[in-house]
Amino acid sequence: MSELRRVRGFVGRLLVFSVASIALAADTLPRPDTAFKGKIDRDRNNSAPYWPQRAGVIKGAPNIVLILLDDVGFGAASTYGGPVATPGLDRLAASGLRYNRFHVNSLCSPTRAALLSGRNDHEIGFGTVVDGASGFPGYNSVWPKSAVSVAEVLRQNGYSTAAFGKWHNTPVWETSPAGPFDHWPTSLGFEYYYGFMGGDDSQWYPRLYRNTQAVEPPTAPAAGYHLTTDLVNDAIHWVRQHDAVAPQKPFFLYFATGATHEPHHVPKVWIEKYKGKFDQGWDKLREETFARQKEKGVIPATAELTRRPKELPAWDSLNADQKQLLARQMEVYAGFLEQTDFEVGRLLQTIKVEGHNEDTLVFYIVGDNGASGEGGLEGHDELNYGKPPGVAERLKHIDDLGGELFFNHYAAAWAWAMNTPFQWTKQVASHLGGTRDPLIVSWPGHIKDAGSLRTQFHHVTDIAPTIYELAGVPFPEVVNGVKQLPLEGASLAYTFDHPDEPSHHKFQYFEMLGNRGIYKDGWWAGSRHLLPWEIDFEKWEKRDPALNPWELYNLTEDYSQAHDLAAQNPEKLTELVQLFDSEAQRNNVYPLVPHFSMPPTPSAGTKTFTYRSGVERIPAAAAPSFGGRAHRITAELEVPADGAEGAILALGGRYGGFSLYVKDGRAVYEVNITGDRAGKVVSAARLPAGKVTIAVDFTPAPHEGPELPAFPGLSLGPGMARLSIDGGPAGETQVGGAPGFNQYDETLDIGCDLGTSVSPDYTTPFRFTGKIEKVTVEFR
Predict the structure, then answer these.
(1) pTM of the full predicted structure?
(2) In the chain, which end has fewer C-beta atoms inside a 10 angstrom radius, N or C?
(3) What is the mean pLDDT of the chain?
(4) What domains are there in the chain, each with its CATH number?
């Protein structure tokens, strides 16, 4: 599978399919500088100029648009029989092909790495999300130079390249103003990038980057801001700028939304379209979706609807309050997905209006994994890693779901319903609910069987080889002096004109967080470890995935994995388990669920940090680790004669963090843990004018058990915080609760509080109106 299978020649904009399958020649990038072909003479009149030539593209090579949604299951979009209206996706499907056996990895960073490289996720260090990296080759999140991205290959072959939206493939300790930047999008082949670097972000107050520079959203939510709309606007602007200068130059546009990952943030007008549409509950919804899937022909007539697992409650077992709250969660999600479809459709329509139709190849992957069950059995309204409020209390704010106040997520059983007809959800790589998502490929004028279905088994690693083949770009054997790992995927271009040809992708392993799967020639074996809503870290740490039983399915006859054949066919099961072990060894999958090991953070070993005014947007992974550690924060200020107010130091946001600020002339120190106010002290006296020193001394409460790890983003735990002004005591507060995590998509800011505010008593950015000489953090 390491060689591209056939070459297609281009005549103008008409693709002529070759009869023979010709392997593309090996190539080396970058190519040598071109030799001077002019003439040099002492007499300038006898001299002829010649300009160095840049790499060109094959005439007629298409623009390529690669779209990836987040946390959308196979059975969510109406295009595949789901309950959420997706007219934009419908239009694209009518102009192209729908695939119903396309597979992703069951978590976001792994899918993205495989998509953009054409290699397996563990093979290149992305066996889990970058936030959970471990010091093993399969899990270190360090994109190797031996796995060149498709963007870099296209760029060096004459394409313009740009990426928009969620990235989540840079080591967390490198996403700081100090870099290094060699694992950022702009060093991995994208000439332009606009989006966010983490796994999730607020749709209302995102932490954005343009190339490698932190930037703030152009407007506020009150003025109509929403992240998906902003990303589409920027992508449209980039296309128009590109075409204004080089309309004949092909482009590669990678558009990866933060939608529909939590938080489910969407304007209320979209939510209200679904009011009352989910009162029947998830059990009935799955039956309705399953019937529509058969009606549309997106699943075989012989497919069976898999049963609800015992780990998820029946809808009818819920009380009236639970049903009211959880039905609203699904209304919010549905509005979020439909809005996403509208915005992505707006991007595609604009590209078409710009004159790009038959010259533009679109790959639209509707989910980087299955729908997410990470919301738990009752969903959540905020980052409640601690004990969430009861349903009755949550109902008081039911109309605020989707808005700025909450970091909301639906209940896990809704995710199960969004993965109809399959078992389980995101993270569960052992079953299709975590790994099978819709793919639509559109290329007007070149795909003659538009609107039809393709049923071959394919995987996210197949997209890169397909792009190389259809762009006529050879896959390089050496890039920047580094020999390249071979491609793992198989081009799916043969499916365009050979709908009944057997799949070229013969086998594929899957693994995530101990959940294992292996496919070969129509058979699938899977071993489930733990579920996304089992938030029991002790269980995760102690349970051995190797002890979990394996299941066996014949996917040729059993499309949805409804019948476990392990007992009836032990020989086939043994064969597949042995293949998994072989592939696991070859691709750096072992050790399964490695113990967490501290990544190399920039601040490791440092006990004193000094910050000056204007230092902003320091990610939690690059900030000091405060959790359970005694420390002093000292702020040296100059207060104007008429007073000052604003944030002096803020780390985190609405759902976890702490802030030292001035309000109404008084110094305030406030802590919140997972959204709950855990401690606050306000100085009795107003700050005097002139030079002032404010200090906060934090003494943690005695801790029983093992020492807390110095984990990036770990916030304050229980202890005592004492505030002083110019050396005199100004108050103290008991900080309650257990150590929690600062909101990952928030940052450390000096002289302001960007993103969402740590305290509800002020609004962002709450810039300090006095002068900050310096802020010092000292650990004892």
Answers:
(1) 0.94
(2) C
(3) 91
(4) 63-506 (3.40.720.10), 608-779 (2.60.120.200)
